[in-house]
Amino acid sequence: MADYRETEVAKQLHIERKVLFKIKQAGLISPSRTEQHGTMEYCFYDDEAITTLWLIVRYREFGYSYDDISKLLNGPAGSRNQMLHDLLIRLDHLTKLARIIYETGLLPPDFMKMKDIMDAAYFKQFDDPKTIKRGEQMINKILNDPDYNNSCSDIKKLYAEGYSKSSPEIQQAVAEAEQVIEKYASKESARNVLRLLGDLFNGDGNIQETTELGSDWIKEIGAAYQYYCKEKA
């Protein structure tokens, strides 16, 4: 079985060597073998150890502490396979979360840790299609609001007059669009909805056909939204 030096392992896992050192220090893994060259000790890891390291790194990304991971690794026989199975479920949840955010503009509460977001309990609230439907209805109400469409018309006219997306005039019109969105979404999530619309307008989505403006200047309006959100971040 091949084994690899610590520097190679860190490169494979896209982590810094100090992260690998912390994992060793936490007692989560030991080198498959070591070699002594003078005062220097070189650590080597085989394929099995690298697989375990990969799992540890992924679980850390999901917000698990080293203590949490230690309990999982030292659990019943075959726990590593169980960890991999659970991780695949969490990755599936992450994909679902991305879809929910994209379709509704709804974000998890800021105080939630990633590992809690990935737990099945969080997703029970999204099992009902009504949640997605509610998000779609919110977007449709915004797009059909006369004040919102007036703000879009203002942006369109300003572009036609030669103003750029970063001009104070266009950015003020975007701010007015955000105020309209706040009628349908909370103040906290209005910016996320504006960002969502910017991505859809300036992307490949068919949402262009749902506005009163048609496709005229819609990508430019999306670009103005994106610039506004970036500047306000």
Brief descriptors of the model:
single chain; about 230 residues; mainly alpha; Multidrug-efflux Transporter Regulator, Chain: A, Domain 2; 2 domains; three-stranded antiparallel sheet; about 65% helix
Question: What is this structure's SSE topology?
Answer:
Layout (H helix, E strand, L loop, with lengths): L2 E3 H8 L3 H9 L7 E5 L2 E7 H15 L4 H8 L5 H26 L9 H5 L1 H4 L5 H15 L2 H15 L7 H14 L5 H15 L16 H15 L1
Antiparallel strand pairs: 1-3, 2-3
Helix pairs in contact: 3-5, 9-10, 9-12, 10-11, 10-12, 11-12
The overall pLDDT average reads 78
Please state roughly what percent of the residues sit in beta strands, choosing from under 5%, 5-15%, 15-25%, 25-35%, 35-45% or over 45%. 5-15%
Number of strands: 3
Order of helices and strands: EHHEEHHHHHHHHHH
Secondary-structure class: mainly alpha
Q: What is the helical fraction, as a range of percent?
A: 55-70%
Distance between the termini: 49 Å
Protein name: MerR family transcriptional regulator
GO molecular function: DNA binding
Domain HTH merR-type: 4-74
